[in-house]
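REQUEST ID: PR-0412
SUBMITTED BY: lab tech R.K.
PRIORITY: routine
TASK: structure prediction, single protein chain
INPUT:
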Amino acid sequence: MTVNITDKKQFLNWLASHESFARREVSWILNYLATHETILKNVHIVEHAEKTPRGICIQTNKHVGNPISLFLEGKVFVDSDQIFHEIRLNWKEPLYLECRFANSWENSLFLAVLEDNPFHRWNETLDTEMTSKVADFFVKEDIEARIAELYQQIDDALENGDQAQFLSLSSEVNQLLEQKALVLD
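STATUS: complete
OUTPUT:
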């Protein structure tokens, strides 16, 4: 998925003007990125920037920790001058930017530019309980779809006076209803 540069600019400008940071250099860097399209086309807004070969994490005053961190090949840098020069000198390289701010998942500008992190995919980090719930959901959906199909076939059997077919289909529905009850437990 390629994110429109205009959308990235709009989000970064919004972030710099609507959120407060412990260091003013964070806003400067955001403004620098927003005003340099050649750099911005290589910026990918992701989560877990620390998992990328070249990532930056910025966070507002509402978050604990460094307001800006650069992750470069497994090393962490927090000096804003050093971070700025890394951005400026390596502008052709992909840069993965993580933006931590309150209610980010409710912000349409953020959601419009958020990309899947190729170095840390969210769906590969689900815990076993969540994976089990998702699998159970799909099993339940399949059972419900099959039951609906069987009810239609039962109606057809009744209209045709086919008692054997009716009994066979009814038995199958009962088995599926029992199976569905087990999945819901």
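NOTES: Strands lie at 43-45, 54-59, 68-72, 75-77, 95-100.
REVIEWED BY: pending
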